Amino acid sequence: MNTDIVTMSITNMITKVRSLSHIRIGTSTHHFGISTRTYGSELARKRLELLKEAVPGVRRITLLGNIANPFSAFSWNEVQPAGPSLGVELRLFTISDLGEFPATFAAIDQSRSALFVLSDALFNAARREIVRLAAQHRLPSMFEAREFVEAGGLLAYGPNIAEMTRRSASLIVKIIKGADPGDLPIEQPTMFELTVNVKTGKTLGITLPASALLRAGTVIE
């Protein structure tokens, strides 16, 4: 089985569920969308905290999103309040086509920023190119899936993909059969892991603090 296709399909489905549930906020007594908002906000803030902890000197963090993906705008709106409390300036760059990557990364480079790549099926498919450009521009980067770190990225923090895949299977089947996402029980991930690539840190001239290494579930030497 092609794992990229499976991961992309799940990502697309989660994005669809989030977008539908977000629309229902304020029009329904169901709390699915509100819980998704709280969960997404807390997780995004945690990623920012971990990136700041791993690279203490960072003062600016750029979020990279897909303009066609409503989850990018959702994430940006939810994470903005965390910037001042963490002592960092947050910026958002969006693309709509893979051909925009070189110019976008060059612009991020000029801002002397760290990078936070938002979850997106397009980005997952292009993760090797994203990691290559991050290395070329010497950008310490946080991702939402460990596959990016396995490809050479610096950090990733997110749900355990194997567990999420198992728990998502029944939900996806119900939605495909026509169930309304807003009527389904909330199934949020319960297992999270930090993945750290020490080799990439050394290449970037970053000595990762012991606290970050101790938190990591997986350390790539």
Key features?
221 residues; Rossmann fold; 7-stranded mixed sheet; 11 helices; 16% strand; globular
Which structural class should the secondary elements be placed in? alpha/beta
Strand count, sense and barrel status of the largest sheet are: 7 strands, mixed
Helix content: 40-55%
- Strand content is 15-25%
Identify low-pLDDT runs: 1-10, 16-38
Multimeric state of these chains? single chain
**Mean pLDDT, as a whole number?**
80
Distance between the termini: 28 Å
What CATH architecture do you see?
Answer: 3-Layer(aba) Sandwich
CATH top level label: Alpha Beta
| Tally of strands | 7
- Total number of distinct structural domains: 1
Notes on the structure:
By secondary structure, this protein is α/β, with parallel strands linked by helices. The chain has a single domain, classed as Rossmann fold (3-Layer(aba) Sandwich), CATH 3.40.50. Helix content is 53%, strand content 16%. The chain has eleven helices and seven strands. It has helices at residues 3-24, 32-54, 70-79, 82-86, 101-110, 121-125, 127-136, 146-150, 161-176, 198-203, 210-215; strands at residues 60-66, 89-95, 114-117, 141-143, 155-159, 192-197, 218-220. Strands 2-1-3-4-5-6-7 form a seven-stranded mixed beta sheet, with helices on both faces. Helix 1 (3-24) packs across helix 2 and helix 2 (32-54) packs across helix 3 (70-79). The radius of gyration is 17 Å and the shape is globular. Mean pLDDT is 80; it is low at 1-10 and 16-38.
